[in-house]
Amino acid sequence: MTLHDYESRVFGLAFLALMAVGSLLMALRVGVAAEREYCRAREQAGVWTAWRAAARTAQHFHRYEYELKDVVVPKLNFISTAVHHLYTGYLIATGRRVIPADTAAKVVVRGPDDFLYYLNGFAKNPQDEAALFSAVHSLAQKRGVPMLQVVIPTKQLNEKAVVGNFIDLACDENYAAFLHDTARYGVPRVNCAAIFRGLGVPRESLFYRTDHHWTPYGALNAVHATLTLLRQTSVSGWHPADFSVSDDFVWAESAADMMGVQGLRLGRYWSVLDREIYGAPRHSPNYRLELWRANGAVSAECGDFASVISHCDRSNYRASFFSGSDYPKISLVNDSVPDGAVLVIQDSFGRSFSGYLSLFVQQMIILDPRFYQLKDMLAVAAAHEFDAILYVRSEFTLGMIGTQRDSLQP
Q1: Predicted structure pTM score
Q2: Angle at 75 between CA 105 and CA 118, to 5 degrees
Q3: Where are the domains of the chain?
């Protein structure tokens, strides 16, 4: 265990102890107050009307419950946020601001209007990411097909002016470096950050309050920008009937509230529920879907957009996307589109994106590199025919600033 890991665990245990003591003291306060109210009411009402005393006690207990929920909990939440900020500042001041991967996933801060943000934006392993990009780029060159980079901005990057300096802005540096490198190596890319800024819509239309993934509305706009580049670079037509955000989709909120990954990691009692955006085409094509699971099992199904693509994953999401965190490989065929086969390299950040992209291409092969050794993933990719490669990653995971960034040849 490194010194930093040890400090992180000590900090976590101390914080939990502080919260436990605060909760215990509040419970004792409520209990003592309720007992006093009951005794006072019973003395005033007499033995034979003790039920009235109990009712009065319940009324006062409700007042203390209100105080606990609306006064004490927000104060504790403010304290926890301040402690997180101080700890992050300590890491930066001591030159150890890179939080280990197992800790980074748990470091969440509340921003304005109950939006939640991760405190850091570092790639877990820049060297591996650089090697992955280099290998996929080489595969595209060998096949003679275009490779297109779709850089997904995370909520930290998109909202850095709102959140302030407490968020680690290395994600901003990663994003700028990767845009520079893709231009240097001649890889066309879609700059989704610029697209999002140009939409002029509220941020809750692009990102969930309690989750770090973008919404289907933001994903569909990124797909339209991607198709523009694909039509310029690919030998295929990429010209099916256009789906527009305003006319060809029905946008609605899900019937049930959800709690995103960040909300779950921060704690249900310290967060708010999210209302999930759902978008489905008015006229859906029929799909043929095959899913390869991590245990080697393969399942197949057929159906329309709502039944095949917009399904609930293990986190109970239903937001027009494939579950990018469950399947090493996905094969999807849309028979209503005459041509276009694309290989998509993505993790969970691209799942809304690939769901909507399926409306415009005949076939998609989606590979999640988190499930593969690099050589094994390349072997799977080489077994398929495709007209283009999409490399869909966020600046949260991009690693072109690693030691292997010069392994590509412009």
Answers
A1: 0.68
A2: 15
A3: 3-97, 126-394
